[in-house]
């Protein structure tokens, strides 16, 4: 079945509205921001089935910044990531789409990063039948700092003119891939699925506030530290780049394992 890219769909959890996501546990190695600069322009070697489908700068970024980190992931986080891998494998084995909904409090940073990177990872490894979504316990806006981090990694972003403070950006991972319409929403808001999906909690505040996600087959907690802590500081860009890179590495870990099991 064809790989579908559905981006930034706010997951409307039946939960009370929360403030900004609390700082969450992340990979210790990611706590020291490392600026990456803009993605390189050279296309990567097509070492994976779908590598050539990504934008050349994005593929070069993956080869340079993401793949080297796969072998050094924290073992405790691998335990949770492996739950997602098993879910994806099981759904695809049954001929069903594997739907992943990433949930944070405001659907403004981490959940969007995870949604887009998971989709890119599935494309890279040639894993068809994957749908990625994101949402929050409340809707705000896809933060422009997170958008900028994706652009530095090699995604392209089309911003609608005159859209105001809550635009529906079109994020694209490759020239021939469909764009993901990225905007902040509640986790149960369309086009997010209402059943048959895995709910992946990307911040501890949303995880604590929403002990039950209606319609979800599985709930997995993979919290990330909020890059918002660096907003307005000299470390802002480096911190967002570090968080984006950490999330990318973990999503590529998941889909490498899915691909290797086939």
Describe this structure as you would to a colleague:
This protein starts with 55 loop residues before the first helix and ends with a helix. By secondary structure, the chain is α/β, with parallel strands linked by helices. Helix 5 links the parallel strand 6 and strand 7 (216-221). It is globular and about 45 Å long. The model is unreliable at 1-46 (pLDDT under 50). 33% of the residues lie in helices and 13% in strands. The protein has a single domain, classed as Rossmann fold (3-Layer(aba) Sandwich).
Shape assignment? globular
Helix-residue proportion: 25-40%
CATH fold name, please?
Answer: Rossmann fold
CATH superfamily: Response regulator
CATH hierarchy: architecture: 3-Layer(aba) Sandwich
Number of discrete domains: 1
Order of strands across the main sheet: 2-1-6-7
DSSP strand count: 7
Calculate the mean pLDDT score and round it.
82
Order of helices and strands: HHEHEHEEEEHEH
Please give the largest β-sheet: 4 strands, parallel
Give the DSSP E fraction (strand runs of 2 or more residues). 5-15%
Tell me the number of helical segments per DSSP (H or I, 4 or more residues long).
Answer: 6
Question: Structural class from helices and strands?
Answer: alpha/beta
**Oligomeric nature of the chains:** single chain
Question: Which CATH C-level class is it?
Answer: Alpha Beta
Q: Low-confidence spans: pLDDT under 50, at least 5 residues?
A: 1-46
